[in-house]
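Can't paste images in this forum, so I'm doing it all in text. The chain is below; anyone willing to post the predicted structure tokens underneath?
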Amino acid sequence: MSQGKGWSLRSKLVLASLTVEILMLGLLLAISLRVAEERLLAQTRQRIEEIGVLFEAALAPPLVARDYAALTDILTASQRRDGLAYLVLTDDQGRALAQVGWPPDATLPTPMRVVDAAAARTGRLDLSLPIRMGGHEYGRLAYGLSTQPLLDAQAQLLEYGLIIAGAALLLSIGLLGALSTWLTRHLTTLTTAASAVGEGRYEPLTCIRSGDEVGRLALAFNHMAEAIAARVRALTETEARLREALITQEHAQAEQRRYAQAAEAEHARLLALLSAMKLGVLYVGVDGRVLYHNPAFRRIWMLDETADVIGLPVSEALPRTECLLARPDHFSRHVLAVLDTHEVSDSVELELADGRVITQVSYPVWDRENRYIGQLWIYEDVTHERQTAAQLAYLAERDSLTGLYNRHYFEHELDRQLADCERSASMGALLFFDLDEFKAVNDHFGHRAGDALLIRLAGELNTMVRRNEVLARLGGDEFALLVAHTTREQTEQLAERIVRAISAIPYRFDGHPLRLTCSVGVAFYPEHGADAESLIAHADAAMYQAKQAGKNAWRIYDAQADASPSLVTHLTWNERIDRALRDGLFTLHFQGVYRLADNRLSHMEALVRMRDAEVPDHLILPGRFIPVAEKSGRIVEIDRWVLRECVRLLARRPRLPALAVNISARSLGNATLPAFILQTLKAHEVEPQRLIIELTETSAVTDLTDAQRLIEVLYDAGVAVALDDFGIGFSSFAYLKHLPVHWIKIDGMFIRNLYQDRDNQTIVRAIAEVARGMGKRTIAEFVEDEITLQMLRDMGIDCVQGYILDRPRADHPAIV
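Text version of the structure:
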């Protein structure tokens, strides 16, 4: 560590490493964009050639035969299959014979003669193709070829490149922060030892053994303590010898001067070591004046190089710095309190106007005769640590897409506010609402358009929410608004504002204007429910009553309206779930997970199904009842039923491979889940490694604290954990270091059509390499063909799961 005023060698190395890393990442992104653009042009030209050959072969015979119905059928089927914007077939005289996707009287655009990258980026290519047969041209086909899927793939490549670059930078910053924390861990030990030296105890420090600055400081301290102790012993012995030998006073004074010089040398050495520390040190005398400060103190407090605070009262020295305190009065009171006491103070955080946070701790200093001689004040800049803690706390209670509160925080606030309303005997309100026809937007324009719509909607809703109200996104397009201490009139006005505001928001996708509406359901506490579960159920029912009224409306829960057929169908799902739990109508199917190395069964995944009470042979798939169970909270009971049944099956069949069980986000937030899993395994005497718990990546990242707690408990007990649907989150790689899982299940969206999508190939290969580097095993879902199976084997994926190997079934061969 340099003792001068310039940068330390450590700082230069860190800065150089980060600079090189940023340059390399930038170069990689630039190359990726260039390659993506060339591939876009090549794929577009190849597509044009393929379509030309197919159309000439398909249209020439019916065109010659004048079979116009067949021509129209071929064009219609081609538009749906090939994603063409329009098709218009004319004869050799220019007369339109058949057209699809183009207005009859509209003029056709001029066909493009040259297809380049700029044209491909416009989103649509207007092309013309002659239809020949036997060397004679019988007509011409004009069509519009959409290049938007290729443009989306190019944008996705850039997005994942940015994610990887951000993850690398975050990892570097995290490592540097951890190193800084590790280097200062022995400060208290050194301070205590310094006080001991002041009291005349020269015991060496044996607990600090490292090669860094702190270790060298400890070693130097030991040398100093030993030297001072030796000097003290030598001085005592010398004085005795002088008394015995009656040495002259001049000789004694000379000896004393020599030892004083040695002590001064040791003192200078200690000051040099203090100057090398990164922690700010301020020494204040008994009169409250500054006697010493090290360079780190000057840097932390941004003290001007020309400013001299030595000899000034501490209350006057700190105001001379260039730092402005956020709460000067609070700091002044703390300084006066510290000066009036001779004890070790608590650590106090000082907030500066520039956003930094500095901690201060003071230690009293005593001399050998136990006399108080001053105070040692230690300062540390902990801004980065506080920012990291604040960010993790934010992510634990916020929805990653919209920034609104998530379901976990909403449920906690609902219980708290209901208890508050009960204590104050006041009315509370719960508003449930979702977007009408939101699924059509996703289906027509894609999920990215739907996400953009939800972000825009969240921003508009935030402007209508007061400070004491809780607005949360429960999932998909479902939102909830919790209002405490309200009146019926105020709540009705709020519901009306929400309906009007959402319907008034202008949306436009791909040049198409849209008008979206919402349906709002309102339930009051305690009128419609005295507990969270009944209040949620009635607010949900009121929302469906609003939809029955024609949508774009709000309704207060009406028990009389619950008899409508469609609403009864919706609400009776909760009763059907209760009946299934009560009468044992749930059953399990199993699908195998196979090792690619030898094609042998690794383990199986347990999948829940519900038997229809009216038609026992009919099985209801989880997509019908799981969303209802998650909303009502009954999913927790279903999860526990599946866990119990799987553990019982493992107990009955000791040779059965491990079983994987999916855990919902609602169960993840239940603090008793880890104990339940371990107690169930112990009660049935099943080895923990035979059970695998699967968590979705989205739920784990949203409830990071709960996920870490669950995974750590299960990890210590020997239960394996898998991260399901990996790759669809925004910070997958970054959060892997916080979640010590054993398995990573790659989401099926990257596996389907893997051999046709180079972007997905790049992503899957990257996930495999990162997982292998972190010591985790990978599973690819939805494997349905031999080509994909071989590609995954070449990429180094450990296991696969999909229909090509087996389908979910109750009588799996591994169980029978």
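Residues 1-5, 563-568 have pLDDT under 50 and may be disordered. Residues 9-65 form the longest helix (57 residues).
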